[in-house]
Amino acid sequence: MTDFKGFEEALSNERFGAYLESCEGDRAKALALYGLNARVSASLYVPIQVLEVTLRNRFHHHLSETYGECWYERGGVITHVFQRQKISDALAGLAMEKRPIEPGRVVASLTLGFWTACVSGPYEDTLWRRGGLAKAFMKSGEKPQRKKVMRLVTPIRKLRNRIAHHEPILYWDLAKHHRNIFTLTDWLMPVAAEWAKAESTFETFYDEEFSNLMLKPADRA
Hints:
By secondary structure, the chain is mainly α. The protein has one domain. The chain is built from 11 helices and no strands. The chain starts with 6 loop residues before the first helix and ends in a 16-residue tail after the last helix. The model has no long low-confidence stretch (mean pLDDT 89).
């Protein structure tokens, strides 16, 4: 069996060390755990992608209805400094690539962090109520409250970033976040959640014994 000698150097001792520590110094088990982390991360990609794309498109639709298609350029709509910077970066990036400065392209260039901030506390009376973001959620019956949406989407954003940066995620409560991804997507657009569930492979890697493979720290996000 190939032992992939020297592979740790490709990962860096610091990164591989987390897996090695979790496996009490057993290198073979640590390599297997690293592979599992990579596969589980990949299995969450489609559900997170569908949520992110659905969220930004639903938000863009309702903000456009209230403020016009170029709502991101309208004064007083987006007020957080970091969000204003993200908009500037998106516009500059499109200009540098000599691509048309169109609303759809700008919206697609904005990060999940940008969209998450749109449901933060300071926007309760503006974007959420008057701006129409509350209406972006198609959930039948009682609509979700902004605080509830923020509480669910914030850790998903953090999980998405850890996956994007190839960080360990096995110590997270992945089953909970997997459910929350579909809950949010279903609130936004049920058919999108149905499609993502059909494509998701997460259950392939998750079972009742999965918790035994979690990495340290023990605190579950």
